[in-house]
Design a protein that fits this description.
Layout: H1 2-17, E1 22-30, E2 34-35, E3 40-41, E4 52-55, E5 61-70, E6 74-81, E7 91-94, E8 99-102, H2 105-113, E9 119-127, E10 130-140, E11 147-155, E12 163-170
Parallel strand pairs: 4-12, 7-9
Antiparallel strand pairs: 1-5, 2-3, 5-10, 6-9, 6-11, 7-8, 11-12
Length: about 180
């Protein structure tokens, strides 16, 4: 009986993971360089990978763009994090309801289960079944936000991060660099 239960649970886990979203791509660009017609960063203005430094004196807002592959509609979260900085409050933006509010107990528990510390904003979006569904979140930045940041991407039902991008917000005369 125990074996049958174990096999059933394994099948259930494998079936559930078959519906998980897969991260196809992610990039960061200043809001001024986002092209709403193509729903992408303007040519040559998007940054991927590591070592990205954003000059806070030249950028007022950032766009974080992802593409996900999913077999069914799924809720995707972009979690903007300032590692190492104590978080006084976490905001949650729900794109379906178009509402911004402080995180409730369930949101805080979701962060705790995933061991996410330093979260500032959770952006909740729905990705439709697609080979490459595009999602976008943005964050206004100020000189007081200088330091290391990252954005993590989650399928709301999975405990592990689909991917993350780290970048530094700094005051310099070089703008966005790699």
């Amino acid at each position: 009986m125990l074996r049958m239960f174990a096999v059933f649970m394994m099948v259930l886990v494998l079936a559930a993971s078959g519906f998980a979203a897969e991260l196809v791509s992610m990039k960061l660009c200043p809001a001024k360089d986002y092209d709403s017609a193509t729903k992408d960063c303007a040519a040559g203005k998007g940054f991927e990978g590591s070592g990205i430094v954003v000059d806070l004196s030249k950028v007022a807002s950032l766009q974080f763009l992802t593409s996900v592959k999913t077999a069914e509609d799924v809720e995707i979260y972009h979690v903007w994090i300032a590692p190492g900085k104590a978080s006084t409050k976490v905001l949650v933006y729900d794109s379906t309801k178009k509402s911004l509010q402080e995180a409730n107990a369930a949101d805080l528990e979701w962060l705790k289960e995933r061991k996410i510390e330093g979260a500032r904003v959770i952006i909740k979006m729905t990705a439709s079944a697609s080979e490459r569904f595009r999602l976008r979140s943005s964050k206004k930045v100020t000189p007081g936000m200088a330091g290391l940041w990252k954005v993590q991407v989650y399928d709301s039902m999975q405990p592990t991060c689909l991917g993350e991008m780290e970048f530094t917000l700094a005051l310099s005369d070089k703008g966005i660099t790699m």
